[in-house]
Amino acid sequence: MSLAPCSTVLLVIDVQVDFVAPEGACARGGADVSGMPAAISRIEDALGAARACGMEVCFVRLETSPESDSPAMVRHMARRGMAGGEVLCRAGSPGADYWRVRPGPGEREVTKSRYDAFLETGLDALLRRLGARTVVLTGVSTDCCVDATARGAFQRDYDVLVLGDACAAGTRDFHEAALEALSRYAATISDTASFIAACSAAVRGRETAGECS
After folding, report:
1. Burial 189-199 (b: 16+ CB within 10 A, else e)
2. What pLDDT tens digit does each residue of the chain (213 aa) get?
3. Per CATH, the architecture of 5-209 is what?
4. Is the pTM of this model over 0.85?
5. Which of 6, 104, 132, 192 could form a disulfide bond with 127, CB atoms 3.0-4.6 angstroms apart?
């Protein structure tokens, strides 16, 4: 793997209490969040490498309100027998807060109300301003918001890299199926160790290869 830090942005998607924490809404509703801590540890590793090489980092988070709730989602949940259930990541609630990882000083943040972080947000405009050609995706869940955002990035002509071990889903099968589909249609699937190695190589090569490539 070869990366140019000045044209690459690391995205951290939806690492929020309601999605990943044992006390969050998903866990309270019976979801298995046991795989989340390992993925978040890898996100922490990726963040360290990105920050060390000067790569831009952007945190993406869901924030909901009665005004932003998707009517189609409400109907979908009703058809699945989940009408009246707890709404995730309500603005101002503890469930909307980050869990274990959060933006550092000067790092970017994008708030979304749908699965795809590009939909009705300023993410694309931000990436264009930063000169991004490649986006590196981490976060949750692999089969939902990571998948939707990866496809959104690909369809806007970004090169998409997904760190598979820095993502998680409700089951291992869902996680693996999402990665397989993304690999076929929209993204290169890699891992955190390879990303860290690429960041380190970029730092070592700056003196001889120039700041950007």
Report:
1. bbbbeebbebb
2. 889 999 999 999 999 999 999 999 999 888 899 999 999 999 999 999 999 999 999 999 999 998 888 888 878 777 877 655 668 899 999 999 999 999 999 999 999 999 999 999 999 999 999 999 999 999 999 999 999 999 999 999 999 999 999 999 999 999 999 999 999 999 999 999 999 999 999 998 874 555 554
3. 3-Layer(aba) Sandwich (3.40)
4. yes
5. 132
